[in-house]
Amino acid sequence: MTEETKVEAPRFDTLPLDPKLLRAVSDSGYTAMTPIQAKAIPIVLAGKDVMGAAQTGTGKTAAFSIPLLQRMLKHENASMSPARHPVRAVVLAPTRELADQVAQNVLAYAKHTNLRVACVFGGVDIKPQAAQLKAGVEVLIATPGRLLDHIEGRNCALHQVEYVVLDEADRMLDIGFLPDLQRILSHLPKTRQTLLFSATFSPEIKRLASSYLQNPELVEVARPNATASTVEQRFYAVGDDKKRALLLQLWRERGSKQAIVFMNSKLGAARLTRALEREGLKASALHGDKSQDERLKTLAAFKAGEVDLLVATDVAGRGLDIAELPLVFNFDVPFNAEDYVHRIGRTGRAGASGVAITFVSPSDARLVADIEKLIKRKMDLEPAAASLASDDERPRRPRREADEPGTEAPRRERGERSERSERPERAERSDRGSWSAPRRAPADPFFDQPYEPKANPAEPPAWEQAAAKSLKPSGPSKYIKPKRQTAALFGPKRDLEPVEPAQPAAASQENIAG
Hints:
Blueprint lengths: L18 H9 L7 H11 L4 E4 L6 H13 L16 E4 L3 H14 L7 E4 L5 H9 L4 E4 L1 H9 L10 E5 L1 H6 L3 H9 L6 E6 L4 H10 L4 E4 L10 E7 L5 H12 L4 E4 L3 H13 L4 E4 L5 H12 L5 E4 L14 E4 L6 H8 L9 E7 L4 H11 L5 E3 L40 H9 L12 H4 L13 H10 L32 H10 L1
Parallel strand pairs: 1-6, 1-7, 2-4, 2-5, 3-4, 5-6, 8-13, 8-14, 9-11, 9-12, 10-11, 12-13
Helix pairs in contact: 2-3, 3-4, 6-8, 13-14
């Protein structure tokens, strides 16, 4: 018999790191390196460009942040002048939550040094961020859109940047950040060290690397697009109307404390959250329609154990590190197969075990085939229990009399009991369910009569006869009032008599005689 020899993972204290960084790593609870860290950190310390591919949850953040902090210690100083603290490293992340998490990790590793760290992202007030940048920072973690806002506002200068990290670059390309990345990289010096880390490598990522990386070292600790071996993947064939009941059944059977439920739409996440709250569960939604403060508070409450089920879109599918998360549900099969790898990567992190359950409806066959093609693994569909109740069969609130069209609720004195159960028609309506047939319009005897032809076909229709009568002159209308006779201002007019003109010859003779 041959005994299996367990290879001991390399330790951080074997690397040429400053004691301040080693103390910070030890304070974070890490002693041994993960495979991606053991391969990438020496290459980054040597000053080479790196393309790192590893399964999610294997410590990619420490793989680039610790060696970059080590290389920037030569610029460390305790001066209060902003000019002595220019931006030396830029870390770009696709989502606000991932940027905030990376910033927390970098702050933990740099807490014993004088290096300043800042994190900027959208959804919050830009003025405090601008003030922090103008005070001087060495490490800047940002989302592409907000970093461009600060560049245009001249809140930071990037002409002294020496290190650039593109974290989850494939996701940034998926959501359309390529033009923003190109604009940001155009503001950076040509001579720099560029690192690209991602859980998946697509042809677009390789083209991006060939454009902006110089002779990069490819670091792969697992097959690209592979899922973690510590995650148990299960697929259930279930209809859309029974997914909610299956979710509640599996959640109660496994007895897990917390889980993330992934949805494809923001509206679906909000609706499912309200339905789970009606079942008595502590559920909260996380999607792009929420403000940044609400999203951060929701994540903090989930990490603190105040929320049982976090119903989220793919906003939470990238880079979020939630310790000891045992269960992940894919309520909807993701449209992009690579998102499946990131979703189930929220569980089974740092060597822990986890379970990822996916609900597959009959219309998801093509999406499941894309996932199987990506991870190169055939998934077995398990049938859901036939006794599951559909969403339409869940108990509803009985209709009140006031809910019936055309009726009013009777007024009852306080303490008077309802007599609905004594009415047979109400009982029959409750047996049929909450739906009631629409009321028919009252019958009109004139329109119900059969058609009868006219005795005289040459006679014009009745409406034409009425129109002809209305056109006959009938004198002035009775609605026209006669004119009122009013008195004139200076009395009535009088006929003036014509005045005969005087004869000029006679007048001249009288003048001569006088």
